[in-house]
Design brief:
The chain contains 15 helices and 2 strands. The protein is mainly α and 347 residues long. The protein folds into 2 domains: 106 residues, no CATH class; 227 residues, Orthogonal Bundle (MetI-like fold), CATH 1.10.3720. It has a two-stranded antiparallel sheet.
């Protein structure tokens, strides 16, 4: 098992390095850099002024060198002009002899946001914490409800209960968040239907999450993901309930509830476990619509802001965090799958 984890960690690190370099290369293409220079200056800048700005800020170095400096494995760039020294590792007020030679992601320096005018690390950690709170609430609601629906539908294939729950699962998965979110707002949060059960704004939930201001975004996301997990659970449960050992248990007179809980449920949860783990990266980046719709300024909202404003350092940080979350959840999924499935563990 230890060797299995070490191999997975090695593959994960190599994959993260390759994906990070691809993202770094795409974000540092010259058209993006030119747009950045004109955004920071003015859109009527000449080509010479653009080149001067990019050179002064270390953007015109070879791509491998820039990537190494961003990672923190190569010394940061330094630019001197008219007796003024600037550089990646230079911060205002710090004496030159105290400034580090290496300052990149590995040293905890994620760069500076050109849009928010703040350190990228603090921005990402703040927004990631807000989305983490939303993700936690969604998983608490979505996973138990989806498993319950899937198990109930799969226990008796073809029954009225199975058809009803399967229809609900398909309908919830087929309804996009921007449709269900608008419907929820119109029905439960506006005066159009006279209900107004939920009176708070999701923006206020960033500081103080309550039932009134946090329920609608959580319900919108949960409803969309619930159907997919429920369908996978139902398919797995249906397959397990037709297995030979289940038929043997029935012939022996074992109670149906004991057959479901003691024999079928664990084997039926192997496939949904992988699907549940895949919900974490989906929630991290897939809440863009919901966070925008409810004005909840979390990680998805930050991704939109970084991409639309061509904030290269911030976009890189968001991309790296997304890659890291995907790879870590895949590692946990693989380890959990091994523990749940004895055949894989023995092999």
């Amino acid at each position: 098992m230890g060797l299995f984890i070490l191999r997975r960690l090695g593959v994960m690190l190599l994959t993260a390095l390759c994906l990070t370099f691809i993202v770094f290369w795409l974000t540092n293409l010259y058209p993006n850099l030119e747009k950045l220079a004109k955004t920071q200056g003015n859109f009527r800048m000449s080509d010479e002024a653009v080149a001067s700005y990019l050179d002064k800020n270390g953007y015109l170095q070879p791509m491998p060198v820039k990537f190494g400096q961003w990672l923190g494995v190569l010394p940061g760039w330094i630019h001197e002009e008219d007796g003024v020294t600037t550089g990646r590792c230079f911060s205002g007020g710090t004496p030159q002899e105290q400034r580090p030679a290496y300052c990149g992601v590995l040293q905890g320096d994620w760069g500076y946001s050109t849009v928010f005018k703040d350190e990228v690390g603090s921005i990402v950690s703040t927004r990631l914490g807000l989305t983490g709170k939303l993700m936690f609430a969604v998983m608490l609601l979505m996973v138990p409800m989806a498993l319950l629906v899937g198990v109930l539908a799969g226990m008796r294939e073809g029954s009225k209960l199975d058809r009803s729950l399967s229809t609900f699962s398909i309908a919830s998965t087929a309804t996009p968040e921007y449709v269900s979110g608008v419907i929820f707002i119109a029905v439960f949060a506006s005066s159009a239907f006279g209900l107004k059960w939920f009176k708070g704004s999701a923006t206020s939930a960033m500081e103080n999450a309550t039932f009134e201001n946090f329920t609608l975004p959580v319900l919108t996301i949960s409803l969309y993901g619930m159907g997919y997990i429920a369908r996978m659970t139902r398919a797995s449960m249906t397959e397990v309930m037709t297995a030979q050992y289940i038929r043997t248990a029935r012939l022996k007179g074992v109670k149906f509830s004991d057959i479901v809980l003691k024999h079928a449920l664990r084997n039926a949860l192997i496939a949904p476990f992988t699907v549940i783990m895949l919900q974490f990266p989906w929630l991290l980046n897939g809440v863009v619509i919901v966070e925008t719709l409810f004005n909840y300024k979390g990680f998805g909202w930050l991704l939109v802001q970084a991409a639309s404003n061509n904030d290269i350092e911030l976009l890189l940080a968001v991309s790296v965090v997304s890659v890291f979350v995907v790879l870590v959840t895949q590692l946990i999924s693989d380890i959990g799958y091994v523990y749940l499935n004895p055949r894989i563990r023995i092999a």
